[in-house]
Amino acid sequence: MIQPIDVAGVLSRLGLAEVNSGAWVSGPLPVSGPVVASNNPGTGAPLASVQLAGLAEYEQVVAAAQAAFLRWRVLPAPKRGEIIRELGDALREHKADLGALVSLEVGKILSEGLGEVQESIDMADLAVGFSRQLYGLSMHSERAQHRMFEQWHPLGLVGVITAFNFPNAVWAWNALVALACGDAVIWKPSIKAPLTAIATHQICAAVLDRHGFGGVLGLIIGADAEVGEALIHDKRVPLISATGSTRMGRHVGQVVAGRLGRSLLELGGNNAIIVDNTADLDLALRGILFGAVGTAGQRCTTTRRLFLHADIADGFTQRLVHAYRHVRIGDPLDSSTLMGPLIDEGAVQDYERAVSAAVAQGGTLLVGGKRLDRAGHYVEPTIIAAPHDLPICQHETFAPILYVSTYTELTEAIAWQNDVPQGLSSSIFTDSFRKVERFLGPEGSDCGIANVNIGTSGAEIGGAFGGEKETGGGREAGSDSWKAYMRRQTCTLNGSSALPLAQGVRFDL
Asked: Does one domain contain both 162 and 292?
């Protein structure tokens, strides 16, 4: 049944107007750019609009962040953590409305929208923990009565560029950890999901403003060619964290490297699942379905390639096709829906081109392959039987298309899995301990994430998230991710009256 959600009420409670400013510090800044509507991908109808910001507003946001950073960086980290705890509580308070807005604006089913906001809440908890664990090592010096240690200081301004598919959580992965580290944050969200960004910013900025730290968070929504370029070229912003396509990330990485800045890149994924002949096939079926169909295939960790052992390939493929035919597609707010729409018409066209290319290159369409004739941007979840080396299989199409191939030896399947430019998430379903060890060993998966008996999607914030090769090499959340947002300093203290040099060097007058 459709959830009884009052759309106007959701927008109102989140502080969203019919037309919203594209530049925010503690509150909205005056802007004069073009007005762009954010449409509901399930209906095509506009939700609200944003008036885009330009370079003048970008400079205001940066200036506010610089001023706030000078005060925020000297606040003791545990005190910063106390404020971040309040950010998490504010997100909890607004979880229902924010989760509904995510569903309305990007088409995720409601449980995924709510789950995304929960991920941001979890990130606040993780960042609170980090605020008391920004550890530096102490080292023994080779020189008598000398002490050596390392310490970590705030880095400065952090630019966060996010994609439409996680319009709330990806910002939280970066911003909440950066805040714990003492940094200020400038957020440039996708123009395809601006309302979630504005609502999230308002909730969190209000908490910081209440503590006298307005400006520590800034939001700028404008054209990539203008404010996006300004952000990645800006030497006042030592770190750019960018999530999006490999094409975008390659440009960001080159520009930021050109000014000797740092970049943290979370880019494309072309993720594979291997199903061994010892696998629990019921478990594998469920893992593949969510991995390939969840979020309408619009996750960087979406399962896009499937390698089935020859002993189980025919029967399992039939089961998978049968399951695909029963995936409930429709309104994301309907509790029975499993797959909502793609984000826009351009995504639908990309889907259609990929299906046509796969068939033209020798793939066999098993199920799906068409857009649905209804309002909104709906397509059918699709399975294509394909040789592993089909050219289209080398590319990430942000849509629910799964390419299925058959293998006979695990070494072969692992080689096929690794034989793509991307290296984000991977998975194997098997009950063989030896095959698990081979998959997780140095000759196994080359991805940043390697799972056993779960799918490729649905990472937890306790583990570092990211991948290798054209996925960009970045890591967010988990373990020591805070180090990306700080600068390391090595200190040596001489407690003697002598001045010995290291390595036995002598320099006596």
From this structure: no
447 is catalytic: no
Q: In terms of Cα–Cα distance, which of 423, 424, 434, 431 is closest to 453? A: 431
Residue 493: how many CB atoms within 10 A of its CB?
10
Q: Is residue 457 situated within a structural domain? A: no
Segments in the chain below pLDDT 70: 1-3
Query: The pTM is what?
Result: 0.97
Q: Can you give the residue range of the structural domain that contains 82?
A: 7-267+472-488
First to last CA, the chain: 88
Q: Which of 57, 105, 119, 266 is catalytic?
A: 266
Check whether residue 294 and residue 429 sit in a common domain: yes
Q: What is the pLDDT of residues 382-418, one digit of tens each?
A: 999 999 999 999 999 999 999 999 999 999 999 999 9
Task: Note whether residue 477 is domain-resident.
Answer: yes
Catalytic pick from 181, 204, 300, 393?
300
Residues 6+ apart with CB under 8 A from 50: 19, 20, 21, 22, 35, 36, 38, 191, 194, 195, 198, 221
Of 83, 278, 243, the closest CA to residue 164 belongs to: 243
412 catalytic? Reply is no
Distance CA 44, CA 174 (A): 31
255 and 205 in one domain?
A: yes
Confirm if 136 and 103 have CB atoms less than 8 A apart. no
